Amino acid sequence: MVDAHQVRSFRIRAQQLDRDRGGLGDTSVLDLGVQQTGPDGAGWALAVRGVDVATLPAEELILLWTIRGAPHLYRRADLPEVAAAVEPFSDADAGRRIFDAAKPLRAAGIDNLAALDEVAAHLRAIVTGPMVKGDASGRLATVLPEPYLRFCRACDATHVYEQPFRLAALRAGLELEIDTSPPVLRPIPGFRTAAAAGDRFDLIRGYLRLLGPANPKHVAEFLDAPVKEVRARWPEDAVEVVVDGEPRSILAADEPALGSAPAAGVRLLGPYDLFLQARDRTTLTADAGQAKQLWPVLGRPGAVLAGGDLVGTWRPRTSGRRLRVAVQPWRKLPAATRSAVAEQAERLAGYRSATLAGVDFDDD
Question: In the chain, N or C: fewer CB atoms in 10 Å?
């Protein structure tokens, strides 16, 4: 049996949150994808794992709408395998992933995978060069029939459903230009999809490798997929472990790492860092009040990771090129931890090309 602290330590090491230096090729989270949401998104997630993002050649990275329709960063060289890995497992899985868009398609007798192919075909014809998302969506709305469209009260206009649009973009061979808002889509030169993803990029194996031990429900929630589809593809080399009395699974090769020494070090994790994306949130914090602070409905903060535990939240406060970091500790932090948090805040300021104006601890 292992406890939650051992699980957190395993994930910290698996996700390389304990290293000070690394390159793109050996950064494990890029196998699963690094979510790009907010200013402290994918780039900062790589930086806290030791990647020198300031010197990264932009052409080595690619930004795609993939898991849950969210933008994720990958190595461009891995694109064929990534494209195969993020394909829906089945038509039923595609229906789950596109949410409310599936209902009108079903009523019209249109299969979900066929619908994604239809949207992709039109996107491929429409986006022949860099194009802002809104323009591409507007063009789609003029060529797709009613089952693909919805009326948006906020815009007082008719749009294509959001998730089919996003999930069809990669099928159409489109990437997102990095650091554009609103998003700009463009064709991927020489785009192709591998026949199979292989173990390294398999999403279920990736979740177990980086966020295990887990059960099929955790993985299904992460992917927006049906549990039965995940269970049917559960790795044969997964072995059962018990976490605080609950049976879960981990890849057999990773089981010995669960007994390693506790993880050390301090990191300021971005709001959508992979470490915080685990679907067993009580493993990260069993306190309901802390969970409410960490995962509000809107406006997520970042998390302070210290010694293998989440010890508080943080938010950036900017004024021009000056940055202050407001820290809400969940307990009194030792002087060494506070000093390490300040060092990480300085690192964040450098990442943002800003000057650190100070770190404010709410327990002062």
Answer: C
Tell me the Ramachandran region of residue 55: left when phi exceeds 0, alpha when psi lies from -120 to 50, beta otherwise: alpha
> What is the maximum alpha-carbon separation in the chain?
64
Fold of the CATH domain 266-361: Aminopeptidase (3.40.630)
Domains of the chain, residue spans: 23-136+162-187, 266-361
**Long-range contacts of the stretch 285-292 (C-beta < 8 A, 24+):** 285/310, 286/4, 287/330, 290/330
Give SS3 for 268.
strand
For residue 60, the one-letter residue type is E
Q: Which helix (H) or strand (E) holds 171?
A: helix 162-171
Helix crossing, 112-126 with 162-171: angle to 10°? 70
229-272 pLDDT, tens digit per residue, is: 999 999 999 999 999 999 999 999 999 999 887 788 999 999 99
Using DSSP, how many helices (H) and how many strands (E) does the chain show?
15, 15
